[in-house]
Design brief:
140 residues, mainly alpha, Sufe protein. Chain: A, two-stranded antiparallel ribbon, 54% helix, globular
Length: 140
């Protein structure tokens, strides 16, 4: 499934909920579904700068696609990174680099986060795109 199809799927899922408490509860559910990250990646080297919570992100490149794994010590933040991984995982570096993550605005995510969580969201997206840029440059 391509990135835009995944984003539209998320928009559809979030449209079921009328208020943000239900959406937060859904994010918590999503956090529980995030596959565990290998403990060797839960080090400072894999921490995302700019997040108030601790978020560890790893990316591996194989067969032309990026595979992301992540974890967080905060449940809402873990749900957010789970959404980003769902959209960007198993994609080509060029697609990750060039995608417009429109689902973030469409579901009202950024507007309903605290300023620190909103900054963390931007930091997560930035780090994922930086990984994609590095893989793209390395494999030209």
């Amino acid at each position: 499934m391509d990135i835009n199809a995944k984003q539209n799927e998320i928009i559809e899922e979030f449209s079921i909920f009328d208020d943000w408490m239900d959406k937060y509860n859904y994010l918590i559910e999503l956090s529980r579904e995030l596959p565990p990250i290998d403990p060797k990646f839960k080090t400072n080297q894999y921490l995302i700068e700019g997040c108030q919570s601790k978020v560890w992100l790893n990316a591996e490149y194989e067969n032309g696609i990026i595979k992301f794994s992540a974890d967080s010590d905060a449940i809402i933040t873990k749900g957010i990174i789970a959404l980003l991984i769902r959209v960007l995982n198993n994609q080509k570096p060029e697609d990750v680099m060039n995608t417009n993550l429109f689902f973030i605005d469409k579901i009202g995510l950024q507007q309903n986060l605290s300023p620190t969580r909103s900054n963390g969201l931007l930091a997560m997206v930035k780090q994922m795109k930086l990984f994609a840029m590095a893989f793209h440059a390395k494999n030209k």
